[in-house]
Write a structure and sequence with these properties.
6-stranded mixed beta sheet; 4-stranded parallel beta sheet; Alpha-Beta Plaits; 21 strands; Ubiquitin-like (UB roll); Rossmann fold; disordered N terminus; 3 domains; alpha/beta; 598 residues; globular
């Protein structure tokens, strides 16, 4: 008798799968039980806890006593079930389901961005689909990319509704809906508008959820290569904190492996002239946002709560759904925009470089950063702060294109002056990290003393919405952390109704924070458990381990931050700091496409 790991809260029942007896919790789906037992049942539309609709029919099984095949992802376990997962009837049904999907799928696999990492492609191979007997009209459903972040190829959509589930269930943005009927059905925004014209926040969670190449980031690799190849350009890369613990996964390294120095080496070998750590300007963000928080706490309590603003997906969510709170958003730019601004001003002047020759390339975990970089207010002295944004996935493609052996690359260091950062800057990549970093520096700004213990456990963990308090001098500050904009909506509504009160809230649009960003590696084909998006805590744990191991753990202690203020900005919240490090927001409303119509 084989037994799964027991949960005392579950009733354990006896079942049979392929003539072997097991004990499993009652009520879970057959698919979930099989995966607990390492029994492979293929699936396509299924995302655990997000999209469990039994639509694709790829996960069908036979159940003794029932004539029709049943979708295992929605059929609950009960006592005495006798299940068959690999009969001829099951194999034929699965193969037919995938063949039908392929019959109306634009099969451009060799040139598709998801080639070799496509769930439909892998299923077809595993199920032995070698020809498509169904010939008929191949419909052209269209293509949309009139925005800087995400492109939508409807010809590669299989109507699995995973994008819709991610957008609705996790983010509560309701961008996608089924349009038309029958073979004309597409999963699209209202009126099939481009994502730029609806309430899309550009977070890319739909891209992570998509099993094919129907939703992808808008690739900028060719523009980066062009800049690198131009002898008159100085091309400078900056890397977000979370990239350091995610990019290795694309080269079969364990989840959450820290590869900071290999990452720097890879960028230098690709041809970048300098490589900067965005972690440095994460520390700078804390100095500016922390000062803003302290000012409101001490002098302008009527302007509380203060909301973090370093996540562009969250900012656009607020602009679309809660324009009335925009005055409560911190006016600080995000770290990568600060880094870009300082590179083309302070750095250019310091090293006597013509800013016209500088091309700033941000390596980010996020598709929304592409959107943010294109916002018209993200300029300094007439120069766009960040010229190009690559997702983690795009950088992986560049590394593979030139044949770098990433795993065995030697170590390299970041370039001055964006090379030294604190543990507080590093944990920006995890949900709660911004708040924890801000609390560390706010304590210093208010009391003049460092917190005795820098760790703030109330901010940590994978719970979607967390509340806590922190004592700073004679003040008790109530704080909140939300990741996933659905959780942000809950917190805002609770605050408006008086159910909850808080002085400061960090919001990250993506579950898990930047470690779960929409531009991070898609691991669905590596192991089924990653499809459930439950791997993010591994990445976050590494960031916290780095923070704990560093001697420098507070943003206000970073010598590079002191240098930037002494040489250029003066002090936090100065006029110069506001000119280069702060921004404005735009109320957009729930129906932006109506405003865009003539």
């Amino acid at each position: 008798m084989k037994t799964t790991k027991e949960n005392n809260e579950d009733k354990i029942v006896n079942i049979s799968i392929d003539n072997i007896d097991y004990e499993v919790p009652e009520g879970i789906s057959i698919l979930e039980a099989a995966r607990m037992l390492n029994i492979e049942i293929p699936s396509l539309c299924y995302l655990k806890d997000i999209n469990e609709i039994g639509a694709c029919r790829v996960c069908v099984v036979e159940i003794e006593g029932i004539n029709n095949l049943q979708a295992s992802c929605v059929y609950p376990i009960r006592e005495g079930l006798r299940i068959k997962t690999n009969t001829e009837k099951v194999r034929k049904a699965r193969k037919s389901a995938v063949t039908l999907l392929l019959s109306n799928h634009h099969r451009e696999c060799l040139t598709c961005i998801r080639n070799l990492n496509c769930e439909l492609q892998n299923l077809a191979d595993n199920l032995g689909v070698r020809n498509i007997p169904y010939t008929g009209e191949m419909k052209d459903y269209g293509f949309n990319d009139n925005n800087p972040a995400i492109q939508r190829d409807y010809n590669k959509c299989i109507n699995c509704r995973r994008c819709m589930a991610a957008c609705n269930t996790i983010q509560d943005c309701d961008v996608y809906t089924p349009l038309n009927r029958g073979l004309d059905t597409v999963i699209a925004p209202a009126f099939k508008k481009d994502l730029a014209d609806v309430t899309c926040i550009m977070c890319g969670q739909c891209v992570l959820a998509c099993p094919t190449g129907s939703l992808t980031e808008k690739e900028e690799i060719s523009s980066v290569w062009k800049a690198i190849s131009d002898p008159d350009k100085i091309v400078i890369a900056q890397t977000a904190p979370s990239i350091q613990v995610t990019i290795g996964e694309s080269f079969n390294m364990p989840i959450g492996t820290l590869v900071t120095k290999k990452l720097v080496t890879s960028l230098k070998r690709l041809g970048f002239d300098k490589v900067f750590a965005t972690d440095v300007t994460a520390d700078l963000t804390i100095m500016e946002e922390g000062s803003e928080l302290v000012d409101r706490l001490l002098n302008q309590p009527e302007k509380l709560p203060l909301y973090s603003s370093c996540c562009p997906g969250w900012v656009k969510f607020a602009e679309n759904f809660y324009p009335e709170i925009l005055d409560n958003l911190s006016s600080t730019k995000s770290p990568h925009e600060m880094c870009g601004a300082l590179t083309k001003t302070w750095y250019a002047k310091k090293y006597n470089i013509d800013p016209n020759k500088i091309v700033t390339v941000a390596i980010m975990p996020c598709t929304a950063k592409k959107y943010e970089a294109a916002r018209p207010e993200m300029t300094s002295d007439g120069f766009r702060n960040v010229d190009l944004v690559l997702t983690t996935r795009e950088l992986v493609r560049m590394i593979r294109e030139v044949g770098l052996d990433f795993v065995n690359l030697p170590d390299s260091e970041y370039d001055e002056p964006f090379d030294q950062f604190s543990g507080a800057g590093m944990i920006f990549g995890a949900t709660g990290g911004v708040l924890e970093a801000a609390v560390r520096s706010a304590h210093k700004l208010i009391t003049g003393e460092d917190m005795s213990v820098p760790d703030f456990e109330d901010a940590r963990g994978q719970s979607g919405l967390k509340y806590g308090t922190v004592n700073i001098g004679d003040k008790t500050i109530t704080v909140a952390v939300a990741h996933g904009t659905k959780n942000a909506r809950i917190a805002i509504e609770d605050f408006k109704s008086g159910k909850k009160k808080f002085d400061y809230m960090e919001v990250m649009a993506c579950p898990g924070g930047c470690v779960g960003g929409g531009g991070q590696p898609i691991l669905a084909n590596r192991d089924y458990k990653y499809v459930s998006l439950s791997y993010r805590h591994n990445r976050a744990d590494t960031l916290y381990n780095v923070d704990t191991s560093k001697n420098l753990r507070r943003s206000h202690d970073n010598p590079r931050i002191h240098q930037i203020y002494e040489e250029f900005l003066g002090e936090p919240s100065s006029d110069v700091a506001h000119k280069y490090l702060h921004t404005t927001f735009t109320p957009r409303g729930k129906y932006p496409y109506l405003d865009n119509e003539d």
